[in-house]
Specification:
Radius of gyration: 21 Å
Number of domains: 2
Oligomer: single chain
Number of strands: 0
Shape: globular
Order of helices and strands: HHHHHHHHHH
Length: 229
């Protein structure tokens, strides 16, 4: 009983300490109204074990852009809801890392479904980082790539054994395809096909680890641009 009370007291003290820190960090960057509201949202999020930093950064971003107080508060509150949804979806699979939860929240906010977020985390086996995969997914969806096309593209690149850093190139490659007349969905589909059939794809027949004799090891060769003739 004494141990339980001590742990509860420690948790309360941590939460009490976080609110002034949030308020202090927001001072001069947002209005006092926003600072008070965000501090309350952050305290509630921390109580549920959710990461607080994304909420602070969202408020700072809104303040820097000169958005009205009610819109900044609404955006922070919406992100808090997305963080909670991501945490619920990912913790059941043992993924409680704050970076992964944050990435999941951004992916959900960009339009992916809970099952699609879970699917991408499951696919992101080492050396792929689930948080990075989810952030790229959120960016692709924000560019107009439909959620399922986003999942298909990322899974194709991962299955092909491309370098984890190449995931970061995908949004730019989609934009390049759109600039050449493709829709975001068409650009994503083309990139997925290119990754699956590129030399050195991990599942290709041939040498060790799916590498054709004399081929380039998986992840060390960029897929060809499917939008060039």
């Amino acid at each position: 009983m004494a141990v339980t009370l001590a742990l509860t007291a420690a948790a309360v003290l941590r939460l009490a300490a976080q609110t002034p820190d949030v308020t202090a960090r927001l001072a001069g960057r947002v209005s006092p109204e926003v600072a008070r509201a965000v501090a309350g949202i952050a305290a509630s999020a921390a109580e549920r074990g959710l990461p607080v930093e994304p909420l602070v950064q969202k408020a700072i971003e809104g303040g820097a852009k000169g958005k009205p107080a009610d819109r900044v508060i609404a955006a922070v509150r919406a992100l808090s809801v997305q963080l909670a949804a991501a945490a619920d979806a990912l913790r059941s699979g043992g993924h409680a890392d704050a970076d992964v939860v944050e990435g999941g929240a951004y992916a959900l906010g960009a339009g992916l479904g809970v099952k699609q977020v879970q699917q991408l985390v499951h696919s992101s086996h080492p050396p792929y980082d689930a948080a990075l995969t989810l952030r790229v997914a959120a960016t692709l969806a924000a560019l107009g790539v439909p959620p399922q096309n986003t999942v298909d593209l990322l899974e194709s690149v991962i299955s092909a054994g491309r370098s984890p850093s190449e995931l970061l190139d995908l949004p730019g490659e989609v934009q390049a395809g759109v600039a050449q007349g493709a829709t975001p969905a068409q650009a994503a589909q083309g990139l997925g096909r290119a990754a699956a059939h590129a030399p050195g794809a991990a599942h290709a027949p041939g040498g060790p680890q799916g590498r054709p004799p004399g081929g380039v090891p998986p992840g060390q060769q960029k897929p060809p641009n499917p939008h060039k003739p």
